[in-house]
Amino acid sequence: MSYAAIDGLLAFATYFGTGLVLTVLYVAVYTFATSHNELALIRQNVTAAAVALGLSLIGFALPMSSAIVNARRIGDAVMWGLIAIVVQILTYWLVRLVLPNLSQRIANGEMSAALFLGAASLAIGIVNAASMTY
To answer: Which of 45, 47, 59, 65 could bond to 121 as cystine, CB 3.0-4.6 Å?
Structure first.
């Protein structure tokens, strides 16, 4: 194996590992920040919770991938990944302003609330990813 391949493998492992750690951190922070326990609801087969969390996870992963692609060094990816977490949490809180009973509706399995939150998270994630042009 060539040195270039080893360097490429090392860079892949570093960025992938960083992205994975930040994604796990995102899920932990997001589930703490919301007024409902998504993972417990998913374990109870509440589809609305899975839809809302799943789309928000994609809404985070898009800017995280943009951060990795545009990073000049690993610190750039970490910084922008943390910003992506903050943006997604703010999105949740902004949607709660529009739907004050959002968490209860998701816990009750209401798909309209879950889809609205998920779509907002995904839309903001797309804009966030496109904005990461450092």
So the answer is: 59
